[in-house]
Amino acid sequence: MVGVVPTRDAIQRAVQAGLDLIEVSPNAEPPVCKILDFGKYKYELQKKKNEAKKKQKVVEVKEVKFRPMIGEHDFQIKLKAVFKFLGEGNKVKISLRFKGREMAHQQLGMKIFDRIQEEVTEMGAVENRPKFEGRQIIMLINPIKK
Question: Which of 33, 11, 9 is nearest to 22 (CA)?
């Protein structure tokens, strides 16, 4: 802590110390500078950035696809996958695609979505209610944080 010093004196002191003069806060009045090793400073900033990145949890969106005429066992297997993804802390996108004449029986698809909502209530919360997008119904489920 030296106080307010003219720029030439600050540069001269940095050269004498064998270090760099770094402007820390250019918008302050007067600007704030430090005398330190710039390479070491950059290295420490990079380390802090990497530490913050490690502690961050990236939430992915996993997708599970259903069909309107799905069998009971197939339904259970896909439901297990949904539980696994929610347990890992990922969002789950559930889609149900209609082919051909299945579009005439959209109520079957909605029954499947109602059943999925009932099964998933303790592990996840529905973010987007089931809605039609062309020939498919899509729903998004968030994991419940413990």
Answer: 33
